[in-house]
Amino acid sequence: MFRIVSLLLSSSVLFSCIQKQEEVLKLPYYNTADFTPLFMSEEEAAQKITHTISDFRFLNQDSVWISNTSIEGKIHAANFIFTRCGSICPVMTNNFKFVANEFNHDSTVALLSYSVTPWIDEPHVLKKYRRDNSIQNPNWHFLTGDKAAIYTLARTSYFAEEDIGFSKDSNQFLHTEHVILVDKNKRIRGVYNGTLELEMQQLMDDINALKREED
After folding, report:
1. Greatest extent of the chain over all pairs of C-alpha atoms, in Å
2. ∠ CA(42), CA(45), CA(48), 5° rounding?
3. In the predicted structure, residue 206 carries a pLDDT above the cut 50
4. Which among 113, 116, 114, 110 is positioned nearest to 182, based on CA atoms?
5. Are 41 and 159 in contact (CB under 8 A)?
């Protein structure tokens, strides 16, 4: 009887380990603007995934410079909004709050909301937007700066409009509901519809999956 119990326990532990390995490997990598998912190990990704988020430097709502070095080694999620948006942006911001609150005191996770009307959304405007939306999360930055720099980063680094990649002219208005998940090595690992609460729950699950990769 003892041997049977031991075998069952061993099988359970083995299954749990296999299941954990599968969970760690479940998130794909995205290397191109068409968002073709690539499933591979970390070792393979180090060799085959060439696309990463480019260097950036923008002011946040407190007029503090936030750059790629500010979030070095962190998982981050990014979206693209503007404060005068009356359609999808309020919904996206409200849904992103679920994610922000889940990781409010987690120094390994950052949230970035880039303004797509930076000529309007100066730091003090973004600060008021945060206040009006009852946002106090220290690791959620609302960013503004040079329009061309933001649009180029959005389209060529984050693939923010994945249905057309970065084929749009840089002067054409950027408006997307997509939220992009990026791992600590600046590689894209997920894309979500920010207007759907269910997808923000999936984003939270996937952030936790990325955190397990580091364990």
Report:
1. 74
2. 160
3. yes
4. 110
5. no
Under DSSP, the state recorded for 27 is S
Residue 90: exposure state from Cβ atoms within 10 A (0-12, 13-18, ≥19): middle
Q: Which residue has the tokens 């519809």?
A: 193
Q: Alpha-carbon Rg of the chain, whole angstroms?
A: 19
What confidence tens digit (pLDDT) does each residue in 5-28 have?
Answer: 443 444 444 444 444 444 445 899
Least confident of 60-74, 83-97, 146-160, 162-176: 162-176
Q: How far is CA 162 from CA 21, 62, 212, in A?
A: 29, 31, 27
**Residue 93 CB neighbours (<10 A):** 23
- pTM (2 d.p.): 0.85
Contact criterion met (CB below 8 Å) for 197 and 95: yes
163-to-95, 114, 160, 199 alpha-carbon distances in Å: 22, 20, 9, 18
Type of residue at 51: H
Asked if pLDDT for residue 3 goes beyond 90, the answer is no
Please check the confidence at residue 214 and state whether its pLDDT lies above 90.
Answer: no
